[in-house]
Amino acid sequence: MAVLAGNSGETCYSKYGAMALKSRACHEMALRIVLHSLDLRANCYQRFVVPLLSISADFYVRVFVRVFTGQAKVKASASKQALVFQCVGCGAFHLQRLGKASGAPGGRVKFSAACGPPVTPECEHCGQRHQLGGPIWAEPIHDLDFVGRVLEAVSTNPSRFHTSERIRGVLSVITEELPDVPLYYTLDQLSSTIHCNTPSLLQLRSALLHAGFRVSLSHACKNAVKTDAPASALWDIMRCWEKECPVKRERLSETSPAFHILSVEP
């Protein structure tokens, strides 16, 4: 896990074919790196993987996948992987797909190279540079039908496993996770970046829902915020929160991410 969580990116590349980044979402990133590695190895033999369940718990990751054979479907694999651009200052991240799959006449699928990058040289929120990680698996990491069946099997026979309570807890959180949103932010990361008090998870989730975005928890981290809101919306909400409990501006360095983010009016 130390290698997958970003402690030595070059070792991670030699073992899994992807660069791991040090980030708050490192546990989910570890799962996605393993899935990318499995798919890459399977592709060499005209096969591809479909994740059924991917779990990060304690200090290990465990993935359950099905392997299928199909030369035509293997071509879609490049569009399932993505590079991650992560700001070193505020931690905002953007995903860049490696390939593009688009519909063509006659129900065919056309594959092409993706266009990018999705970021400017400096972060639009805090002016710092970006780190590049990945490629990682960018598609859903769970099959919710499968998870539902496992949850039902465990619930109907709770005495079968000593840890059935925990299994049910983890699987229940997984069923509520946003399937199409890779990675997440954490509450302490957002508040420590601008040096303010930490809002409650409920407050931040309510603010995102009222702004019209989807939001969920993550099984991989207890104070994670998984949302389809762009980083600009998240920082806007944090600026409004900072108005409730102001930060002493004179203590902030003019080059710090906090100074850049808070100098913009919400």
From TrEMBL:
A Pfam family this chain is assigned to: TRM
The keyword Transferase belongs to this UniProt entry's keyword annotation: yes
Annotated catalysed reactions: guanosine(26) in tRNA + 2 S-adenosyl-L-methionine = N(2)-dimethylguanosine(26) in tRNA + 2 S-adenosyl-L-homocysteine + 2 H(+)
SUPFAM superfamilies: S-adenosyl-L-methionine-dependent methyltransferases (SSF53335)
Top-rank EC class of the record's enzyme: transferase
PANTHER family reported for this sequence: N 2 ,N 2 -DIMETHYLGUANOSINE TRNA METHYLTRANSFERASE, TRNA (GUANINE(26)-N(2))-DIMETHYLTRANSFERASE
Protein name stated in the entry: tRNA (guanine(26)-N(2))-dimethyltransferase
